């Protein structure tokens, strides 16, 4: 469980949500108040994303920590220079593991539902999105017990919703509720996923799950072994020569028995493994028609 920041806008989590229109939502969640900031983009390149982030940071200030996944544009040299210029620490979460950035992932599912509903009802999805964000910011969050806007700005914001009696957001209460809620979520997650301690250790040779769609005749794990070089909690880093990959421990499988260790230390060949074509169906034996006599 990640610790709650000491104050608003100290840590920000960022991710993208792709829309059927070809546009993208740049989703920013402030980790202390859960205050969301959403930008609509037509591209996810560094050159397109950074000006939007620069504008957000001009409005609210530069956070100390920006949390993202390790995909583009956040793994680019351009973004690294942007982080160095503004002075924030870029923290990368475990790739291909949505729970590592859970608050943002859950919020994006809601945003997509808003867009789908608006489209089905033939309404302006952008206008419906703005309305949802306004109401969400003014509604008490189930974890903190106070609205994101109240926690963020120490005052409520005016909306068209009926205004509940405003309550001050006290840091001690927010922390207690946050700790209690995260503990409940952890227990529920472990119960449903049947969590057990990973048997993977540094130095083990492992296989990693393939990304994306797996064909009917393709093994779920890449058959080229890697060697575990670092473990941080449930995050594991494995390598094979110059190739390195970071995933959650559930994406790896330990090799057991005698294996070709030499193959695990050779330089990584990024040539895709050949896919096994679907075997042809057995052709029926055609018998010539009987001649009439």
Can you offer a commentary on this structure?
- The chain has 293 residues and is α+β, with helices and mostly antiparallel strands.
- Among the domains are: 11-153, Nucleotidyltransferase, domain 5 (2-Layer Sandwich); 204-254.
- Helices cover 31% and strands 19% of the residues.
- The protein has helices at 46-60, 77-86, 102-120, 125-138, 148-153, 171-193, 261-265, and strands at 11-18, 24-30, 36-41, 65-68, 89-92, 205-208, 226-232, 235-240, 243-248, 252-254.
- The strands form two sheets. It has a five-stranded mixed beta sheet with strand order 3-2-1-4-5, with helices on both faces.
- The radius of gyration is 25 Å and the shape is globular.
- The N and C termini lie far apart (85 Å).
TL;DR of this structure?
The protein contains 7 helices and 10 strands. By secondary structure, it is an alpha+beta fold.
- Architecture of the domain at 11-153, according to CATH? 2-Layer Sandwich
Q: What does the overall shape look like?
A: globular
Helix content: 25-40%
Structural class: alpha+beta
The residue-averaged pLDDT reads 81
Q: What order do the SSEs take from the amino end to the carboxyl end, as H and E? A: EEEHEHEHHHHEEEEEH
Per CATH, what is the topology of the domain at 11-153?
Answer: Nucleotidyltransferase, domain 5
Strand content: 15-25%
**Using DSSP, what is the number of strands?**
10
Gyration radius, rounded: 25 Å
Measured distance between first and last alpha carbons? 85 Å
Number of helices: 7
> What is the fourth-level CATH superfamily of the domain at 11-153?
Ribonuclease H-like superfamily/Ribonuclease H
Strand order within the widest sheet? 3-2-1-4-5
């Amino acid at each position: 469980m990640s610790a709650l920041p000491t104050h608003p806008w100290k840590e920000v989590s960022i991710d993208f949500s792709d829309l059927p229109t070809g546009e993208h939502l740049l989703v920013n969640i402030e980790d202390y108040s859960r205050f969301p900031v959403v930008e609509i983009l037509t591209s996810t390149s560094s050159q397109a994303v950074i000006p939007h982030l620069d504008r957000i940071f001009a409005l609210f200030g530069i956070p100390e920590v920006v949390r993202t996944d390790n995909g583009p544009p956040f793994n680019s040299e351009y973004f690294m220079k942007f982080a160095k210029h503004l002075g924030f620490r870029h923290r990368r979460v475990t790739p291909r593991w949505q729970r590592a950035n859970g608050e943002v992932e859950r919020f994006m599912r809601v945003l997509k539902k808003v867009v789908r509903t608006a489209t089905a009802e033939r309404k302006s999805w952008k206008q419906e999105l703005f309305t949802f964000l306004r109401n969400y910011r003014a509604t008490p969050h189930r974890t903190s017990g106070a609205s994101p806007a109240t926690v963020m700005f120490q005052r409520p914001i005016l909306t068209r919703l009926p205004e509940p009696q405003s309550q001050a957001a006290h840091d001690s209460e927010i922390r207690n509720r946050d700790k209690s809620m995260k503990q409940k979520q952890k227990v529920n997650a472990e119960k449903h996923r049947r969590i057990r301690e990973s048997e993977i250790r540094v130095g083990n040779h492992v296989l990693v799950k393939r990304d994306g769609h797996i064909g009917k005749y393709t093994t779920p794990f890449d058959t080229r072994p890697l060697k575990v070089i670092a473990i941080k909690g449930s995050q594991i880093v494995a390598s094979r020569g110059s190739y390195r990959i970071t995933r959650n421990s559930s994406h790896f499988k330990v090799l057991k028995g005698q294996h070709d260790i030499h193959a695990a230390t050779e330089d990584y060949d990024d040539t895709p493994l050949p896919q096994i074509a679907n075997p042809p169906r057995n052709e029926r034996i055609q018998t010539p028609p009987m001649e009439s006599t």
